[in-house]
Amino acid sequence: MSEKPEQSVYDYVVVGGGTAGSVIASRLTEDPGVSVAVIEGGPSDIDRDDVLTLRRWLGLLGGDLDYGYTTTEQPRGNSHILHSRAKVLGGCSSHNTLISFKPLPGDWDEWAAAGAEGWDHKAMDPYFTKLRNNIVPVDEKDRNAIARDFVDAARAATGVPRVEGFNKGPFKDGVGFFDLAYHPENNKRSSASVAYLHPHMEAGDRPNLTLLLETWAYKLEFDAPSASGEGPTARGVRVRDKDGVETLISARHEVVVCAGAVDTPRLLMHSGIGPKADLEKLGIPVLHDLPGVGENLLDHPESVIVWETNGPIPDNSAMDSDAGLFIQRDPDASGPDLMFHFYQIPFTDNPERLGYEKPEHGVSMTPNIPKPRSRGRVYLTSADPEVKPALDFRYFTDEDDYDGRTLVDGIRIAREIAKTEPLAGWLKREVCPGPDVTGDEELSEYARKVAHTVYHPAGTCRMGAADDRLAVVDPELKIRGLQSIRIADASVFPTMPAVNPMIGVLMVGEKCAELMGGGA
C-alpha cells in the first residue's frame, strides 16, 4: 500500500476515506488487478491514541481533526451548534461514539417506498453480516453503576422492555446498554479505518491501494457530453496536497464520492453540478442542472436535561454515553419515535449560554427525534471552494411542530425516570431546565434553545426513482445524468433512520462496492 501518488491514473478514485469510503476501497482492492486511490483530507489515525481510544471522543470535537461547520441562524432552534465533521482517516467513525444499530426494517422499507428500489430491509439485511467491525454490547466492566440504575429506572417508569443486544432483532421500544464497534479489552475503536484499512496498512499486502492523505479534493473533472446524448463522464478529481501541490487524479472506470452529507454536495456544486440558478448567481459554470443537490438536509436534533448528583460517579465507562432508551408513542409508527442517550457527565455546553451553571458532578438525558420532520439545505455562498458552505438545518420548522413537541414529551418522560428508583437516589437536583419550568411553551422554548445535534447530517444527495425531480442518485448510487460517478455516504439517505446511522453508512458502502463488482 502506498501513501504517495506514485501515479496519477487509477481504475477507481474514492473521494473520502471515511465510513463508507474505507469499506469501498478495501472491498474493491480484494481484486489484485484493480487499482484504487483514496483521497482523504485528514491524516492517518494509526498510532493516534487520541483518535483510537474511544472514550477520548469528546476531546476530538472542535480540535484540529474537525472541519467544524456551523449552522446559519436558526430562528426556532439553536444558532450556535458546532457540526463536527471528522478530518482523519475513518471519517466520523474515527470521531463518534461508535454506537452501532442495524437500521430497523421500517427504516429501509421507507427508503424503498421513496423510490430506492432494492433497498428494502430484506435486500439490505445481508450486508450487516458482512461488516468487519467488532460490534459487541458494552462490556460488563464498562457498565457504570449509575447507567445500570438508569436502565432499571427507565424500565420501571415507562414500561418498556429491557433489551440486551439491540441488534438481535427489530424493536419498537426498549432500554438497555448499546452495542458498540469497539474492543473492550483496551477501549480501542473498531472504526471503518481500523476494521477495513489498518490490516492492509500494517501488513503492506495491498500494493493496488493508494491512500492520498492530507489531500483535499476541490473539483471533479468531466469529459464533455458524448454525441450519443449521454451526459458528461467523470474522469477524475482535482486535489491539493498539504504542501499546496495541485494534481489531477484520474479514474479509468469510476469516481466514487464518499465525502459525507456536507462535503459531497459541496464538491458537486463547486464542480458545476447542482441547482442551476444558485450556481449561476455565484458565477460557477453549470455542468449539469441537478436541483436536489444540497436539499433534504436531515439530522437527529436533541435537547438535554441535566441533574446534579450526590457526589462523584464511578469512573468506569466505554464512552460516557453507554445506555439509552427508545419509546414508541404513536402505535401506528413503524418504530420508535423518541430516543434518549444517557450521559454519565453533565452535558451543559448549550445550557451554559442561557445562564445555567455546570455542576461538578452530574448526569444528562438527551431526548432526540428519531424521525424528524423538519428539512434543511446545504448551499454555497461563494465560488471559492475554500469557503465553507452554509448549513441551514431549519430546525423545528415542520408545519405541525412535531419535532418541538417530541422534545417536550422527552423532557417530561426524563423527569419521570429521574423520580424513579434506583436512579432517584443518585440525584441531588435538576439543574436545567430546572423544576420550575413546567409549561409546554416554557419547556419547548428551553428545549429548542439548548438543542444540539447527534452529529447525524444526511440526505443532501438523496436516492430516488427516475421520475423524482429532487433525487440526485438512482438506486445504483449513480448520479443522475452523469456517467462513471457514484455517491456512497449518508448524503444518499432519502429519509433518516430512527437509530444512529453509522451502521447504515457502512452498509451503503458494502452495497456500493458490490454494485461496482467488488467484495466477496
UniProtKB/TrEMBL annotation:
| Top-rank taxon, per record | Bacteria
The record's annotation in InterPro entries points to: FAD/NAD-bd_sf, GMC_OxRdtase, GMC_OxRdtase_N, GMC_OxRtase_C
Alphabetical UniProt keywords: FAD, Flavoprotein
Q: Where is the Glucose-methanol-choline oxidoreductase N-terminal domain?
A: 260-274
Q: In this record, what's one Pfam family? A: GMC_oxred_N
Q: Which cofactor does it need?
A: FAD
Gene3D superfamilies, per this entry?
3.30.410.40, FAD/NAD(P)-binding domain (3.50.50.60)
Q: Name one GO molecular function term.
A: flavin adenine dinucleotide binding
The entry marks the following residues as binding FAD, namely 88
Q: Which family does it belong to?
A: Belongs to the GMC oxidoreductase family.
Name-wise, this protein is: GMC family oxidoreductase N-terminal domain-containing protein
Q: Which organism is it from?
A: Streptomyces xanthii
